[in-house]
Amino acid sequence: MDHRTIELRTAFKQSFGSDAQVAVRAPGRVNLIGEHTDYNDGFCLPMAIERDVLIAYRSRSDTTVRVLSLQQKNLEIFDVGPSEGNRIHKSSQVSARWADYIKGCAQVLREEGLKLHGVDMALTGDVPLGSGLSSSAALEVATMLALLGANGLTFSAEKIAKLAQRAENTYVGTQCGILDQLSSACAVHGQAMLMDCRTLALTPAPLPKGISVVIADTGKRRGLVDSAYNERRAQCEAGARALGVSHLRDVSMAGLWQARQAGKLDAVALKRCEHVVAENGRTVAAFACLTSGNAEAFGQLMDQSHADLRDKFEVSCRELDDMVAISRALPGCLGSRMTGAGFGGCTVSLVKDEHTSAFASSLASAYKKLHDLPMAVYLTCAAAGAGPVVLG
Ligand code: ADP
Ligand code: MG
Which fold has domain 3-199+383-389? Predict the structure, then answer.
């Protein structure tokens, strides 16, 4: 039992007057390669990180949900019973918006036809909020496990991921693809996973021996991300329509060149499509590098991914480009790229084990000379997907 579990147990008892019955956890994730491909039915290569959302809970006999967030220092109460009508009301106060992720999960389960009992929940987490490491998906997946567990139900990890994504899309209102929730729900300890976002098939592969994954947060928050993300999605959808396919997944580089010759795409659409088509190819190639243990080639694909995200998909920013350039020049770094939606958030780098601690400190000091932002470096192994935790 770590200190967070003890803190959570204590907070639960203080707030709700009895002991929690069960605890569950769901991790954040980092995507090693395959960016802006999930909503194009393409490929991603994520792994879960050793940071998670932890929820202790106790089921109730009525339909009240009480949820305490240790980070937000805030208790929210709502009802999941039929008297609440068709829709659980969203939080009106900004300070309670975090609870919409929980209400959204309950709403989606009600829409599945479940008659839910209430539950008391206390939650804590160490996935940085809004950094692109998917604290929102970790919160949703952990909430799904808690709500289902409190109601004596079990769903498959894939179904939980889909329902969690639906909660974020339809209730919270963020049009994310399936990458975040599927990673959190289905990750395998010690492995990265090739994710086929069309079939939702996951194929695990271990990281190369002697190589560490280093995540660095630029400290820049992704202010533009919602509108720019939706714009990129719309551009990809328009590109697919112009090319006569349902998703850019179905386009080859050769097909893209033919479409260009035929004048089917304007210059911006062409750049966006080029990134997606090339990134799908790079992701499948990167997976092959994992299975053959070729870390150098994997790193080169990460570099190419960053260049396209910067120049063709245009979702990088000064801070991310600086972080990647600094990382790339440091000893032992095999590849580096922005990870997540872009416009801020984190980079991910592959670094030889013997260089990792020097890499982390040199990166921090060089970056701080350029940007006065609350940057952070996280070293992580590939964590297990969501599941129960022993409360002790
Ligand atoms: P990301 O998923 O990249 O971290 P998002 O903007 O999608 O960023 O989600 C962040 C939001 O998720 C936070 O602003 C908060 O509302 C909610 N959240 C995540 N983890 C927690 C937590 N431990 N406690 C309360 N709210 C959380
Ligand atoms: Mg999120």
Answer: Ribosomal Protein S5; domain 2 (3.30.230)
Residue 70 CB–ligand 1 contact under 6 Å: no
Angstrom distance (rounded) from CA 373 to CA 108: 37
Q: Whose CA is nearest to atom 15 of ligand 1?
A: 98
Domain boundaries, the chain: 3-199+383-389
Q: Which atom of ligand 1 is nearest to the CA of 345?
A: 3
Spatial strand order in the sheet of 202-206: 43-44, 191-196, 202-206
List the structure tokens of 370: 């350029």
Residues 158-217 have pLDDT tens digits of 999 999 999 999 999 888 889 999 999 999 999 999 999 999 999 999 999 999 999 999
The pLDDT of 105-113, averaged and rounded, is: 96
* Ligand 1 nearest atom to the CA of residue 180, by list position: 2
pTM of the model: 0.95
CB of 139 within 6 A of ligand 1: the answer is yes
